[in-house]
Specification:
Number of helices: 7
Order of helices and strands: HHEHHHEHH
Oligomer: single chain
Structural class: mainly alpha
Number of strands: 2
Strand order of the largest sheet: 1-2
Length: 196
């Protein structure tokens, strides 16, 4: 039996936690929206807090998914020009992209932390849920902190030569059997694929 490193085990636990939280939020949002629709249209009643709760859960879902999308490489990237650069060029561009994303995320995290802190100081509660708003808004700094971690991991992978840039989903769709570099902007293949 192969033993796992502590770092690998922590990564797996954290990833499972992320996946579980995302799945749970989707499930609860779906059930709550369904129950609200049945109550409203079937019984002319409803839960006054359901819409607000769903909105906050959607916010949590978004901020968790940003980080998870970076991990899985599901954010779309347009790299047509980057792929045409000479050797070493894509890695340099990738490193600059990751560093710019780190700076932007750090600025957003700072702003989010100040915003949530202000909500805590003011003691503002949610409109329909008897919970302090700052607790519900913790998704913003928490999610951005997770993004900062994922981007730091990407920066390390680029610096160590294991990645040439951020792991992103390809913007090109598969048309035919040719290499992806031969498929870009081939109008004849695009039209033939659309006719199927």
């Amino acid at each position: 039996a192969q033993t796992l490193s502590v770092r690998t085990m922590i990564n797996r636990v954290f990833e499972r936690f992320e996946e579980g939280a995302i799945a749970l939020l989707l499930f609860v949002m779906t059930v709550l929206t369904f129950v609200q629709a049945v109550l409203r249209y079937g019984f002319n009643s409803g839960l006054t807090w359901a819409l607000e709760a769903t909105g906050y859960m959607f916010g949590w879902l978004i901020f968790l998914d940003i980080s998870y999308g970076i991990k899985k490489g599901s954010h779309i990237g347009v790299d047509v020009l980057v792929k045409k650069l000479p050797v070493g060029g894509p890695r340099l561009v990738g490193l600059n992209v990751v560093l710019l994303c780190l700076v932007y995320t750090a600025l957003m995290l700072y702003g989010a932390w100040r915003y949530v802190s202000t909500m805590q100081i003011l003691g503002v509660t949610a409109e329909d849920i008897p919970v302090p708003r700052w607790i519900l808004l913790l998704a913003i700094p928490l999610g951005l902190f997770m993004v900062l971690g994922r981007l730091s991991e990407s920066a390390w992978l680029v610096l160590s030569g294991r990645l040439t840039g951020m792991k992103l989903a390809d913007e090109a769709s598969c048309i035919g059997q040719a290499e992806s570099s031969d498929r870009y902007l081939r109008l004849d293949r695009i039209i033939s694929a659309a006719e199927i």
